[in-house]
Amino acid sequence: MGLSGAVMAKDSAPVVSTNVTEAEVLAAQQAWGNALVQISQDFEKGGFEKAKQTANAVLDAAYGYNMGPVLFKPTLTVAPQTFRTTKEGALAYFVGGDKNYASDTGFALKGWRKVDVKNVGIHLHGNTATSMGNVSITDKNGKVTTVDKTWGYVKDNAGNLRIVLHHSSLPYSPK
Amino acid sequence: MGLSGAVMAKDSAPVVSTNVTEAEVLAAQQAWGNALVQISQDFEKGGFEKAKQTANAVLDAAYGYNMGPVLFKPTLTVAPQTFRTTKEGALAYFVGGDKNYASDTGFALKGWRKVDVKNVGIHLHGNTATSMGNVSITDKNGKVTTVDKTWGYVKDNAGNLRIVLHHSSLPYSPK
Amino acid sequence: MGLSGAVMAKDSAPVVSTNVTEAEVLAAQQAWGNALVQISQDFEKGGFEKAKQTANAVLDAAYGYNMGPVLFKPTLTVAPQTFRTTKEGALAYFVGGDKNYASDTGFALKGWRKVDVKNVGIHLHGNTATSMGNVSITDKNGKVTTVDKTWGYVKDNAGNLRIVLHHSSLPYSPK
Amino acid sequence: MGLSGAVMAKDSAPVVSTNVTEAEVLAAQQAWGNALVQISQDFEKGGFEKAKQTANAVLDAAYGYNMGPVLFKPTLTVAPQTFRTTKEGALAYFVGGDKNYASDTGFALKGWRKVDVKNVGIHLHGNTATSMGNVSITDKNGKVTTVDKTWGYVKDNAGNLRIVLHHSSLPYSPK
Asked: Considering CB atoms only, which of C70, C128, C150 is closest to D167?
């Protein structure tokens, strides 16, 4: 196991902190966007298996499925498979191709090129943090999709933020 | 200020805990449902002002607007007023009648009679907790509306859970 | 109840943090030292009742007895009253004059003039923090007493650090 | 990395908690006592190298030196080496034989047979906990030494409590 806390030498006393910082939240959000674009590009250049491999690695590195069920409500899932608390369910959502999740068509494979995050607020509570805001994703044709998104993070002993909560939804449209 | 931690006498040593328990989360969820029904009933019996008074009291007691901006994405809000990080915005959503939030019609006034919460998972991290799942609300005509809902709580020094994060969305409907 | 979290406007998104900072720990340590000197001075100028009143106010403001039993092992207490988990026990230690704590002679009344804190480390975990190091206190005759000291803090909803753990001991003297 | 949180199936929703429980604190205290006795016995049966190996393993498993400086004030250390914030300093205290810590004679090698912990209080704050009380250790001749002791713990991602704070002192003796 690596370092759990950042050690900062100030005055003469070292400070060990397990707290999440705003900068770490912003970096984790950017990493999520980069990963989504990467999966799309890997799909275009390397095909389904390559994309699936990347998505799998992203889930291992950036989500907290190793810590227990993740509270994940993806944008486009439908009942009775709305919530993807297992890694298998999350992987199916991102790349599809899983007969146990027949309605999934691979959200991450849709030619994404750019991800912009606009937070309305960030909460920092010890080794956890939450954020809420809009995330806008642009595809290869320049079409932008904006969703309402909540993320929750836990910092692990290696100092990495892991997504343990992710609620994404299309904006409400009055009929 | 009241007691911050529950003190339990076990063996000979008292235990002070500031941690949120599952039971406290379930109780807070039930209290939210009861409050929604109460506002509807107060509206029917006592009119708008009575309902607004109740909604105001609910926001003061059950939400964390006294702690800073709340990460609140109600079910039916639209841009540019999607997120209601202030108490004023939350109150407008629940009871309407605020010219600064002209699209709000008063979500809590729609004759709600029953609220059922079905969690898919609860996370406990110190004096904070999150939950995700479906919430089904039944109106006076027996019509049921089910939403996908995430709540985040912080326990205050008086031992009360306060909602500091609330993301609610209608289920995705493939076209 | 006041503000629980510091709100910092950065970029466009407000950040709410309930985490303790190193600066807050250092300020709380300095405040403890100032309070000790104040009690001594109040005793000299205003007598026992004045000193007791000040000590009482310090315990209310800077310790967490309102949150439950405080883990307090003062420097000079003896069994069976070594630990002062109640406010009454802490007050007796600081100013004496309590027949229930007959061995207490009023530690804070000994003419203290200066307090220096030299930390060997500070740990920050969410709304709690701990520190360890040497504390040197100088009396009116210039005599310096150095103790080994551990403090534990919890930040309350008003944003104040409260001492919930305090272990103080004279340096070990090999015979 | 293993499981970070205990997952408990209750009702239909799994609960993930990273919080420390009282039972975990009591178990960690007992494990500390057992480890002290083990080192003594390994010394008697296997000699210095065997004892040192065991002490090293105990420090790796039960202390948080892998997370940064540990706030450790052992019972019998003297200035300027009072505090043992590094693993090397802790190991020297327990088994001696380190020329960089010439005053250490190996506290854990003194024929310890039994350890009793009597807490005056335990505080639980998320994935951290603190305890204070008396620890009485009995040697092979039946002699009992009682110290005032504070422990602070952090639960790591594998679910193990690690000591990150340890302040031990002999009872104050009025002259």
From this structure: C150
Query: A7 in contact with C at a CB cutoff of 8 Å?
Result: no
A30–C contact, CB cutoff 8 A:
no
Interchain CB contacts (distance < 8 Å): C and D: 122
Q: To which residue do tokens 């100092």 refer?
A: A159
What CA dihedral angle connects A32, A33, A39 and A42, to 10 degrees?
-130
- Among D23, D21, D61, D19, which residue's Cα sits nearest to residue D39? D61
Contact A130, A122 (CB under 8 A): yes
String of DSSP letters for D3-69: --SEEEEETTEEEEE----HHHHHHHHHHHHHHHHHHHHHHHHHHHHHHHHHHHHHHHHHB-GGGS-
Lay out the sheet containing C112-125: strands in order across: A6-10, A13-17, C112-125, C128-139, C144-155, C161-169, C71-73
Q: Which residues of C touch B124 (CB under 8 A)?
A: none
* Collapsed DSSP state (helix, strand, coil) of residue A146: strand
| Model pLDDT for residues C66-86, shown as the tens digit of each residue | 999 999 999 999 999 999 999
* Measured distance CA(C150)–CA(C156) in Å, rounded: 20
At residue A1 the predicted structure's pLDDT band, cuts being 50, 70 and 90, is very low
For residue C73, the tally of other CB atoms under 10 A from its CB is 26
Residues 55-114 of B with CB under 8 A from D: none
List residues bridging with C39 in a β-sheet: none
Q: Is D169–C169 a contact, with Cβ atoms under 8 angstroms apart?
A: yes
Size of interface B-C (CB pairs under 8 A): 66
Question: How far is the C-alpha of B170 from the C-alpha of A73, rounded, in Å?
Answer: 12
D31 CB-contact burial (10 Å; exposed 0-12 / middle 13-18 / buried 19+): middle
pLDDT of residue D11: 57
Q: What is the pLDDT of residues D6-54, one digit of tens each?
A: 554 445 799 999 999 999 999 999 999 999 999 999 999 999 999 999 9
Contact D64 A14 (CB under 8 A): no
pTM: 0.94
Give the residue among D164, D71, B123, D157 at the shortest CA–CA distance from A158: D157
With an 8 Å Cβ cutoff, are B19 and D126 in contact?
yes
Residues of C in contact with D132 (CB under 8 A): 71, 73, 83, 165, 167
Residue D19 touches chain A, beta carbons under 8 Å: no
B153 and chain A in contact, CB less than 8 A: no
pLDDT tens, residue by residue, B26-71: 999 999 999 999 999 999 999 999 999 999 999 999 999 999 999 9
Residues of B with CB below 8 A from C154's CB?
Answer: 4, 18
